[in-house]
Amino acid sequence: MRLSDTRRLISGNAPLSDFSRLLRRLHIDGPLLGGIILICGLGLFVLYSAVNSDTRLWVSQVIRLVVALIGMLVFAQMSPDFLRRWTPWGFLAGLVLLILVLTTGEVSQGARRWLDLGIRFQPSEIMKLAVPMMGAWYLHDRPIPPRFGQLLLVGLMIVVPTVLIARQPDLGTALLIAASGVIMLVLAGLSIRLMLALAVLSVPGALMLWNFMQEYQKQRVLTLLNPDSDPLGAGYNIIQSKIAIGSGGLFGKGWTNGSQAHLDYLPERDTDFIFAVMGEELGLLGLLALLSLYVFVIGRGLYIAIQAHDTYSRLLAGSISLTFFVYVFVNTAMVTGLVPVVGVPLPLVSFGGTSMVTLMAGFGILMSIHSHRKLLPH
Amino acid sequence: MDLLSSIKDHNSERRLFISRVILTSVVGFLLLSTVIARLVQLQVYDHEVFAAQSQGNRIRIEAVPPIRGLVFDRRGRVLAENLPAYQLELIPEQVSDIDDTLQRLAEFGLIKIEDIPQFKELSASGPRFNAVTLNFRLSDEEIANFAIQRPRFPGVDFQPRLVRNYPYGEAVAHAIGYVGALSKSDLKRLDPSAYAGTSHTGKTGVENSFESDLHGDVGYRHVVSNALGRMIPADSRELTGSIPDDETPAPGQNVYLSIDLDLQQVATTALDGRRGAVVAIDPWTGEILALVSAPTFDPNLFAVGMSTSQFAELQDNLDQPLFNRAVRGAYPPGSTIKPMLALAALESGATNLTRKTICRGYFMLPNTTHRYRDWKPEGHGEMDLHDALTQSCDVYFYEISGDIGIDRMHYYLDQFGLGHETGIDINGEHPGLVPSREWKRNNFREPTDKRWYNGETVIASIGQGYMLTTPLQLASAAAALATRGIRYEPHLVAAIENAVSGDRKLIAPLRLDDVRIDNDAHWDAVLNGMHDVMQSVRGTAWAVGGNAPYQMAGKSGTAQVFSVAQEDEYDEEDMALRLRDHALFISFAPFDNPRIAVAVIVENGSSGSRVAAPIARAIMDKYLGYGDDATQ
């Protein structure tokens, strides 16, 4: 592939080359795929260092990535109409699985999150997509902005799975799912006044949530407010993470040279705190490069949303893109000590397979929406 | 439903959607800006702070313990040294089945079965990469056996270390003391940072009181370590760049004792397994030449570490081998007090050199019927002060006791150093007790008990009743008699040597207040009495002193362990062994030019002159150069 082809590929409006034609036939969006591949590549680069050059672990992550990309390809082939028709059933199945998990799920580290139905997975992952899809499904043939009663119904579709997941308990995922639903409502035209009212109402809501929280979750919030209060206990993660990032400086200590990461000072360095490893080893420039790639992918997703031709596609594409942003924001803000440690991985970079498959499925849906439009832009 | 409003207006919907995308993008942009601002703050503005913190994280300072100073006797013989030894260690994280491994080690005889639960507990506590010591000192044979079996014991290995060794352990145990494993209470007393890396500390004796000299200064080594404190092998040190300089430890100072090992051994031999104590002092310096308490123990057991049963055996032994009788044992001085009381009587005019009394074997206070017995039931007959000293007549002292008075007794005995700590340079000294009216007033509760009774003065005149002295105090008092009142603080340490430079700092004798005796003739009379105890045929210890190749002066004593009831006959045969009188003896020699003062006590030894005096003689023979003839 020549350089000029690459440039055209990224612009998205290039005349069709053989390669572009192949991508189109596979319902793949070139720029989005390019951005994802670059993020994953950078992520694998950092992960190799974070797992202490453990090739076996690293290769297992590469395999997961390939599986997730195949999943993305599968979703890209399903037309938005097909997805929309199946949405209520998917949502219902997700709810059933969530209830199953609460009653029969495997207990690990004090929480029931996993279900073993031939393959072992977390039903909450299904909900990450099923909730925005359900919202979009419900609103797609109703006038936008929706009326109050309709809003309440969508609110219920968000609250029920959120509460079920919070009961596992998995507060991080529950908050992300609630966020994806709220984003859906905002995109659907939730009135500004109502948003402000909700913001005011969130204060007593937060107090109620506080009572609902487990002791360890409360501890996380308290530690965030004053991490130095417990430097060897709950504040340890945040302190060590800040030291890792801060000591990286502008250019970093160099790949695999992070002393915080490699001498075990930084906990969960290959999962939730991999952003800190990157900050220590690749410095501010490395982090900005990664954030730029994220912004590119999110921007492309929003572009797809705006280009979409029907309400369902628009809302779903917008919600998927912005939820992805929320993932990025929550993880980076958490690792830098801006928000409490809620256990959200850095999307496409952190070690682990489940969330990767869900993310890629979401990107597959974005590609499907973009490639199944009835009118082509040129 | 209103038909119009239910019709979807696609254009306005798209516009609304685009405006919402813009709105959320702005919010997202603001949020992302916050994160980036935070990154700039952490990585640019506060970079140096965090860089320093990350450096501090990975470089750990590890203490390197100093080598403990050596202890020598006055002739330069090593009494305490550090020997390399191999200890058996187990690293819990490298052992898959700790129970099985310990069991098999016990079968090999490398550890005791009874200690297995303790080792299991130790393995479970603390970081799993920290070694647990299973056996502090492996014998050569054990090392050889284990070396062959080592592949069968992954995670178990032997490691070299320095172990305190006392080559003449038992003979000097109570003077030197011993080191033992650092305990939590030790760390409260000591500076924990100065003892980082040190495993043992002085527990008793010179090892304890000269701890600060012997210990040395801890050194430091910088090691790269991970979050759990585990040291990282050398190859990953490349991570660190430059490592700060290490600081080598400064070895402890060497300590030279005034003790003479030969005298220690002679005294130990002469005590011949009996319970007792011997203290010998150079009267002109206060240097302690011998300090022996029997029975003794092997201090190496503490340095190496002993099993629970071994310790219980020492601790529960009825003869109390761990008890330092020489400085902590408080005994009634018995008749050994008489030379000092004679001086008090002469100085105070309670008697004079010519006064005579008739000893009928007992004494009664006016208007009472209580008989204060003499040790010689039939009595000594006519006695002057000189006779009363040489023959140790109790009645003579009973008779003059009222005229001296308890407070004057206290005044003079106090000057001889009795009733308070001598100031010896090891810890745990017993102050002894010399009673007085004031003491009785302050230490009893009932008004009738607070009074001082004349009868109490009577028995105080032969060193009984409330009076208590330690062998060390008696030796110090004997030295003061030898010097005619010039006194030095007794001490064990003669010099301290810098182990690196070899500079030796001598400990100067500390002169104390003289005993104030105004009339020299009184010294002559009392010292002549002590001389004739040994040299005159009628002297109580003539059998010991008469054949000595030099002139000894001495005074024997027997101290009652309990008081004999009035009408009972003293029957040594029927008395349980432990209720027999203690035998005491104080002495100095040569008479004209005293070079050594000795106090001896033999618990339940019955007779000071027959049992205690020969021990003093043996030590003096050795010290004055007649040793080989006398001890054989």
Description:
Helix content of chain A is 70%, strand content 3%. Chain A has 378 residues and is mainly alpha-helical. In chain A, a hairpin with a 2-residue loop joins strand 1 (106-108) and strand 2. Chain A folds into two domains: 32-77 and 234-371, no CATH class; 86-213. Chain A has helices at 3-11, 18-25, 30-50, 55-77, 80-104, 123-139, 148-166, 171-187, 192-212, 215-225, 236-248, 259-262, 274-307, 311-335, 354-371, and strands at residues 106-108, 111-117, 119-121. The mean pLDDT of chain A is 85. Chain B is an alpha+beta fold and 632 residues long. Chain B has three domains: 19-59; 84-165, Ribosomal Protein L30, Chain: A; 261-305 and 325-631, Beta-lactamase (3-Layer(aba) Sandwich). Chain B is 38% helix and 17% strand. The radius of gyration of chain B is 37 Å and the shape is elongated. The model of chain B is unreliable at 1-6, 234-242 and 563-568 (pLDDT under 50).
For this entry, give a set of tags.
heterodimer; A: about 375 residues; mainly alpha; three-stranded antiparallel β-sheet; B: about 625 residues; alpha+beta; Ribosomal Protein L30, Chain: A; Beta-lactamase; seven-stranded mixed β-sheet; five-stranded antiparallel β-sheet; 22 strands; about 15% strand; disordered N terminus
What's the topology here?
The complex is a heterodimer of chains A (378) and B (632).
Chain A: H1 3-11, H2 18-25, H3 30-50, H4 55-77, H5 80-104, E1 106-108, E2 111-117, E3 119-121, H6 123-139, H7 148-166, H8 171-187, H9 192-212, H10 215-225, H11 236-248, H12 259-262, H13 274-307, H14 311-335, H15 354-371
Antiparallel strand pairs in A: 1-2, 2-3
Helix pairs in contact in A: 3-4, 3-13, 4-15, 5-6, 5-7, 6-7, 6-8, 6-14, 6-15, 7-8, 8-14, 11-13, 13-14, 13-15, 14-15
Chain B: H1 3-6, H2 10-45, H3 47-58, E1 59-64, E2 71-72, E3 78-90, H4 98-107, H5 116-124, E4 132-135, H6 140-149, E5 156-165, H7 169-176, E6 179-181, H8 184-189, E7 200-202, H9 205-209, H10 211-215, E8 219-224, E9 254-257, H11 261-271, E10 276-281, E11 288-294, H12 300-304, H13 308-316, H14 325-328, H15 338-348, E12 357-359, E13 362-363, E14 372-373, E15 381-383, H16 385-390, H17 394-404, H18 406-415, H19 437-443, H20 447-450, H21 454-460, H22 471-482, E16 487-488, E17 493-497, E18 504-506, E19 511-512, H23 520-535, H24 542-545, E20 553-559, E21 582-589, E22 596-602, H25 608-623, H26 627-631
Parallel strand pairs in B: 2-9
Antiparallel strand pairs in B: 1-8, 2-3, 3-4, 3-5, 6-7, 9-17, 10-11, 10-22, 12-15, 13-14, 16-19, 17-18, 20-21, 21-22
